Amino acid sequence: MPTDRNSGWVEPDIVINGRALTFAECMSVRVAIGSFRLSLQDREICAGIGTVLACNYDHHLASVERTMLSPEPRDEVVGLGERRRKNPHEPQQWPIGTPVTVQRGNGDLFETKTRSQPWLLSGHTWVILVQGISGCYALDRVTER
After folding, report:
1. What's the mean pLDDT in 101-124?
2. β pairing state of 136-138 and 119-121
3. Chain-centre distance of CA 97, in angstroms?
4. What is the pTM assigned to this prediction?
5. How many CB atoms lie within 10 A of CB 132?
6. pLDDT tens-place string over residues 47-81
7. How many whole angstroms separate alpha carbon 35 and alpha carbon 29?
8. CB-facing half-sphere around the CA of 130: CA atoms within 13 A
9. Are 72 and 52 contacting, i.e. CB atoms less than 8 angstroms apart?
């Protein structure tokens, strides 16, 4: 498995057309898949490509994402609108719109609502998207109200 020399983080082996990808390339593929799956939660994007196609993409990308994130089999990750079994290593899953408080980098508290489910970022940090803040926040800075 490709490993970053500085951090020790590991990415899955990915071979495309006979060439093994580097650590950075593997990480980029995983981030791109995760980002595309997040964008599929946007109703306008789903409407633009069609709900059936969006659900199909999400279902198959969930399988790819599961394979990339798990060296051993885990509970099945499924697509949009489908339930999945809880993995004991995952944090609590909050429905989108759950009221939460985010502790910002400067220590200020920001009351908001979730706009995604938590996901594992780069294989090491659980994060979530919230309303009013661009980008994701680490779950250790987010509490349910």
Report:
1. 84
2. unpaired
3. 17
4. 0.42
5. 10
6. 888 878 887 787 777 777 766 665 444 444 444 44
7. 10
8. 23
9. no
- Tell me how far apart the alpha carbons of residues 52 and 23 are, in angstroms, rounded to a whole number: 33
Summarised one tens digit per residue, pLDDT across range 7-42 is: 777 777 777 787 888 888 888 887 888 888 888 888
The tokens 């071979």 sit on which residue? 15
User: How many H helices and E strands in the chain?
Assistant: 3, 8
pLDDT value, residue 3: 73
Distance of CA 67 to the CA centre of its chain: 13
| Residue 107 Cα distances to 19, 110, 131, angstroms | 45, 9, 18
Instruction: Give the model's pLDDT for residue 144.
Output: 87
Amino acid at 26: C
Tokens 């650590």 sit on residue? 23
pLDDT given for residue 113 in this prediction = 93
**Residue 48 CB-density burial (10 A; 0-12 exposed, 13-18 middle, 19+ buried):** exposed
**In which residue are the tokens 């609108």 written?**
81
Q: How far apart are CA 67 and CA 1, in angstroms?
A: 13
List the chain domain ranges: 1-86, 99-144
- Spatial strand order of the sheet with 142-144 comes to 109-113, 99-103, 142-144
